[in-house]
Amino acid sequence: MATASARTLGDRLAERHPGEQVMLTVFRRDELRHVPLTLGQRPYNKLTIHARADATVAEKTLYEAWLRAPWPIPSQKETDA
After folding, report:
1. What's the sign of the alpha-carbon dihedral 54, 56, 57, 63?
2. 38: which of 12, 45, 49, 77 lies 20 to 30 Å off by Cα?
3. pLDDT tens per residue, range 47-67
4. pTM
């Protein structure tokens, strides 16, 4: 049985595959519990950033600093929204 702390749990899970069954052992209310788990797939998070025609100078500056990319010129479709 492999032991994982909060710090190493991600590494342990990376060694496993979706659909694989594992046993999670935890203490809860001074009681040792064994919980069978079937691992799932990590959800895919997709974020999209759109340039706003009415963005302030501060927003444009933040965008450029965060993404290390120049402020895009909004398309006509974005300016109509």
Report:
1. negative
2. 45
3. 888 888 889 999 999 999 998
4. 0.44
**54: nearest Cα among 35, 78, 21, 20:** 78
Residue 28, Ramachandran bin (φ over 0: left; ψ between -120 and 50: alpha; else beta):
beta
Q: How many C-beta atoms lie closer than 10 Å to residue 78's C-beta?
A: 13
Gap between the Cα atoms of 76 and 74, Å rounded: 7
How do the domains of the chain map onto residue ranges? 9-38, 47-81
Q: Are 52 and 72 in contact (CB under 8 A)?
A: no
What amino acid is encoded at 3 in this protein?
T
Averaged pLDDT, 31-56: 88
- The pLDDT value given to residue 37: 92
